[in-house]
Amino acid sequence: MLNIHDLLGRKVKTLVSTEKEAGFHSIRWDATNDAGAPVSAGLYLYMIKARRLQTNEEDGTAEVAFL
Question: Average of pLDDT values for 3-26?
């Protein structure tokens, strides 16, 4: 799972909603929300849900700037 959130924690866009095989993947966000409308310039967070096979840990959050 890969989602984009605003700084208030509201989900703006779901980029990936299905499980992927292990390996390299890339995706590009077109700066629109789930309804297809453009979002304002600013700072956004992405949340990725992934599972490490050895430790079974998951989830991570980081920020991305849209200018």
Answer: 91
